[in-house]
Amino acid sequence: KDFLYAALGAQSARMVQRVTYRRRKSFNTKSNKIRKVKTPGGKTAVQYLAKKPKGVMCGDCHKRLQGIPALRPKEYARLPRRQKTVTRAYGGSRCGKCVRQRIVRAFLVEEQKIVKKVLKNQAAGAKA
Fold first, then answer.
1. How far from each other are the two terminal CA atoms of the chain, in whole angstroms?
2. DSSP states of the chain
3. pLDDT tens for each residue of 58-101
């Protein structure tokens, strides 16, 4: 009997104390992650973990936007407007590189229209 207790004693020292969920959801899902924590009384308790925020992404190149904190959606609602955007055209929606590309593209399209109009006028002048 003593031999059996000695063998089990070494194993039971390694066993962890079981914990149960404290909320209604009883499945290990993304929104139900927990951390096991030792209390000062020596018991193992459960702490629920919040989801990690991803941050705001550029709509064109899908990279993280600088200057805007990475928060969960509900926390953005509590932020003032100046912390949710950047003071620039498309600030808080597109990154600076993509905005520059849009401006250059729009400029080149307008230039192309002007060139077409000039060529059309020259062709009409040559016929007359």
1. 118
2. -HHHHHHHHHHHHHPPPP---SSS--S--GGG-EEEEE-TTS-EEEEEPPPPP---B-TTT-PBPTTS----HHHHHHS-HHHHS-SSTTTTTS-HHHHHHHHHHHHHHHHHHHHHHHHHHHHHHHH-
3. 999 999 999 999 999 999 999 999 999 999 999 999 999 999 99
d(CA 2, CA 19): 30
**Is pTM, for the whole model, over 0.90?**
no
**92's torsion region: left (phi>0), alpha (psi -120 to 50) or beta?**
left
CB atoms within 10 A of CB 65: 19
Instruction: List all residues 6 or more positions away from 72 whose beta carbon is below 8 Å from its beta carbon.
Output: 50, 51, 53
